[in-house]
Amino acid sequence: MLFRFVFKKEVYDEFSNSSKTLTVVMFDIDRFKNFNDRYGHEIGDEVLRHVAHLVERELHLDGSKGQLFRYGGEEFIILLRDKNLEDAKNIVNQINKALKDIPLFIQDSRLDVTLSFGITVLKKEDRSFNDVFKRVDDYLYESKNSGRNKMTIEGKVLNYEANLKKSS
Questions:
Q1: Where in this chain does the record put each GGDEF domain (predicted)?
Q2: Which of 11, 32, 82, 96 could form a disulfide with 160 if both were Cys (CB 3.0 to 4.6 A apart)?
């Protein structure tokens, strides 16, 4: 499902005047263009499906009830209702672990897929979902500019953790 403007407004309206927490995660596939250039667009599409499937799987296994949306190209958004930043960090670590544990094999080759993430929460001072979106997009680019295969949470760039904690 693509993340549309109408849905952004609905989500913002639901959470902006609520005591509930909304954590927004944005990620993209590192060096996705290389997959398309080297293997072709059909393989690029397979990489997209593989990533989406694993992320959905982890959201379901985790019990977070997070919603995954394709934003465009190789960018995705995850909405985590009633999950804090620590929960989001743990979920992202689980996603990263799943990508390592369940690699994609195409044409007798193992494709090592990595992701860069930005993570933020809806804040009282946000005037619209666009404020949240701009911030999480900036954090995603901080991860990419810091070498990729990282997450940035509220401006702090982190590597993935080997020792995972289950989120609540």
A1: 20-156
A2: 96
Residue with tokens 């044409």: 107
Q: Residues 119-137: pLDDT tens digits?
A: 999 999 999 889 999 999 9
| CB-based contact 126:42 (threshold 8 Å) | no
User: And the tokens for 40?
Assistant: 């072709």
- Centre a 10 Å sphere on the Cβ of residue 102 and count the other Cβ atoms it contains: 11
Domain ranges of the chain: 5-158
27, β-bridge pairs: 76, 117
As annotated, the active-site residues are 74
> Whole-angstrom Cα distance, residue 89 to residue 44?
27
C-alpha separations of 138 from 13, 86, 155 in Å: 22, 19, 9
43, amino acid identity: I
Give the pLDDT confidence of 145-168 residue by residue, as tens digits. Answer: 999 999 999 999 999 986 665 544
Residues 6 or more apart from 124 whose CB is under 8 A from it?
16
For residue 63, give the nearest of 41, 90, 101 by alpha carbon.
Answer: 90
Amino acid at position 23, single letter: T
